[in-house]
Design a protein that fits this description.
Keywords: Cytoplasm, Initiation factor, Protein biosynthesis. By secondary structure, the chain is an alpha/beta fold. The protein has 6 helices and 8 strands, in the order H-E-E-H-E-E-H-E-H-E-H-E-E-H. It has a 4-stranded mixed sheet. It has a 4-stranded mixed sheet with strand order 5-6-8-7, with helices on one face.
């Protein structure tokens, strides 16, 4: 393989070093880089298919090597002098990059802050309903903002709201924790509960549970084995 040393040139700038580091890390290429015959420079700094440094070679030689290896010559650092190019299967690279981006978007977790409003003198049935919603939110990996709304004379009894918030936090302590302690905000008292599980973990568990339910539905009822003696001829 044609090889020239890098020591005879002292013009290696930050762009070159960054591009070569990219090749070792397997980083991403900018959108639609120039490849093969679209590259219009006299010479390139070539990086092999495994990330090895080949050196500065004429463009014609780089294209010849690409054809020899049945790969593409891809310009990965156009602003370097000379530009840095890498030998790779560009079609395969684009496909794998698209799949990785799709998977990353699929697994991307956004923590959402849900809100639940209660009254200081809430009745037991409504409390259980509201608590059920809080439990569901925490299981999903979301934070929950609990707001106690005071009206009229209730504003003179903030301890009622405080005790209700403490009760709710204790009831769901296996799923969440007090991230923001109760504090008065005008006519309201606010507390924020954070989930013990991360959003990604909650999403993974939800997918596993969904897959298990689907497999159970598709499996159908098990077939019972017959233990009857065969009839005599």
């Amino acid at each position: 393989m044609y090889r020239r040393g890098w020591s005879h040139r002292n013009r290696t700038d930050a762009a070159v070093r960054q591009a070569v580091a990219w090749c070792y890390r397997g980083g991403s290429i900018s959108a639609e880089p120039r490849i093969n015959d679209r590259i219009r420079v006299p010479e390139v700094r070539l990086v092999g298919p495994s990330g090895e440094q080949v050196g500065i070679v004429p463009l014609a030689k780089a294209l010849e090597l690409a054809q020899e290896y049945d790969l593409d010559l891809v310009e990965v650092a156009a602003n370097a002098r000379p530009p840095v190019c890498k030998l790779m299967d560009y079609g395969k690279f684009k496909y794998e990059s698209a799949m990785k981006a799709r998977e990353a978007r699929k697994n991307q977790a956004h923590t959402v802050i849900k809100e639940m409003k209660l009254r200081p003198k809430i009745d037991p049935h409504d409390y259980d309903t509201k608590k059920g919603h809080v439990v569901r939110f925490l299981k999903q990996g979301d934070k929950v903002k609990i707001t106690i709304m005071f009206r009229g004379r209730e504003q003179s009894r903030p301890e009622l709201g405080f005790r209700l918030l403490q009760r709710l936090a204790a009831d769901v302590e296996d799923l969440g924790f007090i991230e923001s302690n109760p504090k008065q905000d005008g006519r309201n008292m606010i507390m924020v509960l954070g989930p013990h599980k991360k959003k990604t973990e909650a999403m993974a568990e939800a997918r596993e549970a969904q897959a298990a339910r689907k497999a159970e539905r598709q499996g159908g009822a098990p077939v019972e084995e017959s233990h009857e003696e065969p009839a005599e001829a």
